[in-house]
Amino acid sequence: MKASSRVRNLPTPSVQRLPVYLRFLKEARRRGDDVVSCTRIAEEFGQRSVQVRKDLAITGVSGRPKVGYRVDELIEAIESFLGWDVKTTAFLVGVGNLGRALLNYEGFVEHGLDVAAAFDANPALFGQEINGRVVRPLDQIASTAARLREEGRIVEMGIVTVPARAAQPVADKLVGIGVRAIWNYAPVRLDLPNDVVYEEVKLSASFAVLTNRLRRRDADE
Amino acid sequence: MKASSRVRNLPTPSVQRLPVYLRFLKEARRRGDDVVSCTRIAEEFGQRSVQVRKDLAITGVSGRPKVGYRVDELIEAIESFLGWDVKTTAFLVGVGNLGRALLNYEGFVEHGLDVAAAFDANPALFGQEINGRVVRPLDQIASTAARLREEGRIVEMGIVTVPARAAQPVADKLVGIGVRAIWNYAPVRLDLPNDVVYEEVKLSASFAVLTNRLRRRDADE
User: How far apart are CA A37 and CA A144, in angstroms?
Assistant: First the structure.
């Protein structure tokens, strides 16, 4: 794909803002808008217009002066840029509350996420069905992946929703079956091979920033 | 509090790393360690020692050369710095899967989070009990806050776990009862008064970064 040199060293904050623009553009499309201006998007999100233009430029699409972006074209460009126009097959490990929430949430399905199976270490959960997926024992990760592979489905992503202590061994298992991306919800940093892409959802970190700011504000008053 | 000038313009990544250090320190204490060196912490998290020292310095505690940090003192300093040594009373709005996960998760309780009540717009959920909290109708936010205030409990934080479309009106309601912090899980940016501290948990943003990197890697191969 020719884009690979262009997309090197992408600014992460720009990538992070794309889903929000995408949602807005899809709403615009539902309303029947064909074109949307950069200024309009900037207004919606309280950002500078130049920032929005820069964010959107990483997808390879540029608006026309005094006209703006074609809504359809921009939606397609963002989805393609994010890889949301193709299916990503995933395993989810850890069927606690957070794991359940993710299994039940349909929002990522429209972004191509296909959770093919869910696993847990707790025998009480084995066989339970959550939104169409049966919970399997942790030690069936490799055999399940092998069976899917025979059907032509390659597990590319592991979603880790186990407690902190269990996260590294689970990640190792997932790397063992060849996943190329780990999405970690456990509050620990995972040690992974360099060729595995990695993202953490840091709930505790977010809470820390919030409470720290709240108490600093107290101190200022 | 004299610290307010010192703690201005704190580097957010440092604040975000403190919960992970805290977890490690609590484990060290459980093992019976009195002292831990900066190098040891750095090793554990694959960071440079100088970065760890800098991160910890924002709490006001510094280690002694060749000895390290006193575990107890450092735990106390981090908890106090993050405001995790005091109770933060919160309302949670939106009892879908994610809201339920947060209500059932005990991890934030030990960081002082006290979710006093949960609200939803769906009448089918009214009266349902989740981990000790009864789900109330959305229009009882103000009256519930008033009742708690009579008991001396001030609702300081609003946790927003409603769908994107409902998030802004819910946040407005929460601001209306005087919350001073909003923790937003909905995939939209909320428009809030300047004196309300704000944190978003960006699940879609995290997924976007992950899938984008995964597809870039595909393109490189």
Answer: 48
**Integer Cα distance of A195 and A188 in angstroms:** 19
In order, the DSSP letters of A164-192 are HHHHHHHHHHHHHTT-SEEEE-SSS----
Q: CB pairs below 8 Å between A and B: how many?
A: 193
Residue with tokens 């040891």: B40
Q: CA-to-CA distance for A40 and A17, rounded, in angstroms? A: 15
Chain A residues touching residue B199 (CB < 8 angstroms): 206-207, 209-210, 213
pTM for the structure as a whole:
0.84
User: pLDDT by residue (tens digit) across A69-88?
Assistant: 999 999 999 999 999 999 99
Q: Tell whether domain B3-80 is in CATH 1.10.10.60.
A: no
Is the domain spanning A88-205 CATH 3.30.43.10? The answer is no
Where do the domains of chain B lie? 3-80, 88-205
A189-196 own/partner pairs: CB under 8 Å, 24+ apart: A189/B20, A189/B45, A189/B46, A190/A160, A191/B46, A195/B217
What does the pLDDT look like over A114-147, one tens digit per residue?
A: 999 999 999 999 999 999 999 999 999 999 999 9
- A76: amino acid identity, one letter: E
- The one-letter code for the residue type at B21 is Y
Interstrand relation of A35-36 and A69-70 (parallel, antiparallel or unpaired): antiparallel
Convert the pLDDT of each residue in B156-167 to its tens digit: 999 999 988 899
Contacts of A4 in chain B (CB under 8 A): 216, 219-220
Residues in chain B closer than 8 A to A158 (CB atoms)? none
Query: Whole-angstrom Cα distance, residue B8 to residue B15?
Result: 12
Residue A157: how many other CB atoms lie within 10 Å: 26
Alpha-carbon torsion angle B207, B213, B216, B221, nearest 10:
-120
Q: Which ipTM value was assigned to this complex? A: 0.90
